[in-house]
Amino acid sequence: MKNKSLIVAASIILMSLISCNKYDAKGNLIKSYDELQKAKWLVGDWKKTDSLGTLQEIWTSQDDSTFVGQSYYIQNEKDTLHNEQIQLTQDKEHLIYSTTVKGENNNAPVSFQMTKDKDSVLLFENPKNTYPEKIQYQLNKNNSLSVTISGKQKGKNSSETYIMTKNK
What we know:
This protein is mainly beta. Helices cover about 15% and strands about 55% of the residues.
């Protein structure tokens, strides 16, 4: 009788674990990208304009596991001083920020892993990268976006913060 109770209990636990998964009409497991969904507030067109030029970052949803971003800085409405392609991808339980900056790192991507996601803050880190080592996105209460890059430059701690507003 004791063995039957153990088998029933194990069966109940197994069924509850299986029932948490979602399946499509063909019986294929539908993957969940919960880590990526923590960043869905990033999707949109963000911009900062001042007397020096315009910084713009545009984020879109490529598919269920990837957001793509493009960041560029234009001076005098025609000179592109910075051009960056970004991918935010969930790989298993990790959210990975990969950035390719034109003219840097032989145009190869550099990856950063999310280390913090709390209170509308996403922090990505790569301590092996020269600069930046950290990239932080923060959604502010006034719906502006603060982007901070930080690390060491020439042996000294350095950081830059850009505050952008969302275009409608």
